[in-house]
Design a protein that fits this description.
362 residues; seven-stranded mixed β-sheet; three-stranded antiparallel β-sheet; 12 helices; 12 strands; globular
């Protein structure tokens, strides 16, 4: 893999290369991948993590000082890079990078979950005592769910708009946030509606809250071919073993077009396990308009893509009449009025009206 080549090249240039990897849930696969890489002397397995050593970050230090960190949702794998949506975020801030280095030293000890959680929480309290603007980091595992409660509070404080991605269902804290019929525009992009033994109940809950006029949800879906389609059949997945097919990002945008946008982004799903069990890292970014703008552009790009994909499997959309309608993206200017006043861009009770006002700056 090219990542191994890049690390070996760095080592050849004289850099000290040290790598921690998941030696518990993915131990066999990682060891197989490391075979022949030439990096055996530079790696160490995390064998006492919770369920997953789920971090994805690269830390650069120069002359004994931390300089920058690369992080996000992207696993350095074929699926992570080519199989589903992901993000990577570079922070060129010495203080943040040093905090990550201190976290790395905690993980390097390969302690059990309890002492790791105690030290991670002490290093990055969440919510923090003071946080007016800038960037802070939050590491897992943690002793409790205060960080997850804080994220839900941030989401619930949205004044105009909320945008979130969910890779494995929606935690009940965020269901409560989305389950509000008010004037706040709320978008959610999901890999799937739920997981585990209660997936049917979770899916029913998502279908219920998405009926609210201010809540718009899109769920990843494969495009099925039919008599009208003329493009090639899409590939199911990048590799044979793929646990995620569409959406793997984990980020939240609160009022991204406002004066003080909030972004929460990193490796952790907005879930209990990602907070109190797995090794994870997150960034909370406040007041950075340019960063919020980039994430909003990517969110809407992916949301539009998967909203269309999901619409293809709606019941009526498989009929010949509906297929023929898709020959035209906009057959007339009447689309702006929708099917009536309540569903148009000028019907005050519709999600279209909320979108028009928010994205036009009203």
């Amino acid at each position: 893999m090219r990542i191994y080549a890049a690390l070996k090249a760095a080592k050849k240039r004289g850099a000290k290369v040290k790598i921690l990897y998941d030696g518990k849930s993915q131990g066999e696969q990682n060891e197989e991948a490391l075979t022949g890489s030439g990096l055996a002397a530079n790696v160490k397995a995390r064998t006492k993590a919770g369920n997953f050593a789920h971090n994805k970050f690269l830390l650069f230090r120069n002359n004994g000082k931390s300089a920058q960190v690369w992080t996000g949702s992207t696993n350095l794998s074929e699926n992570g890079l080519f199989g589903h949506s992901n993000n990577a975020h570079i922070v060129r801030d010495a203080d943040i990078a040093e905090t990550y280095f201190n976290f790395w030293k905690i993980l390097q000890k390969d302690q059990t979950k309890k002492p790791t959680a105690e030290q991670a929480q002490e290093l990055t309290p969440a919510p923090p005592d003071k946080f007016s603007k800038g960037v802070i980091s939050v590491f897992s595992p943690r002793r409790d769910l205060d960080a997850l409660d804080w994220y839900a509070e941030i989401a619930g404080n949205a004044k105009r708009a909320l945008f979130m991605t969910f890779a494995f269902g929606m935690n009940e804290r965020f269901v409560k946030v989305y389950d509000q019929d008010d004037k706040v525009l709320r978008f959610a992009l999901m890999e799937k509606k739920g997981n585990g033994q209660t997936i049917k109940e979770q899916a029913a809950e998502i279908d219920r809250i998405r009926k609210l006029p201010n809540t718009t949800i899109a769920v990843g879906n494969k495009v099925e071919m039919n008599r009208f389609d003329q493009w090639l059949q899409e590939t199911d997945k990048a590799t044979d073993e793929a646990h995620v097919l569409f959406v793997h990002t984990k980020y939240m945008l609160v009022d991204p077009l406002g004066d003080e946008p909030m972004i929460v982004v990193g490796s952790a799903n907005f879930s209990k396990a990602s907070t109190d069990t797995n090794d994870e890292n997150m960034l909370v970014i406040k007041g950075e308009k340019s960063v919020a703008d980039i994430y909003l552009g990517e969110f809407m790009r992916m949301f539009s893509h998967y909203a269309y994909r999901e619409s293809r499997k709606f019941k009526k959309n498989s009929t010949q009449a509906e297929v023929l309608k898709r020959k035209y993206l906009a057959p007339s200017a009447q689309w702006i009025d929708g099917d009536g006043t309540s569903s148009s861009y000028f019907g005050e009770a519709s999600d279209r009206a909320l979108r028009r006002k928010y994205f036009s700056g009203q």
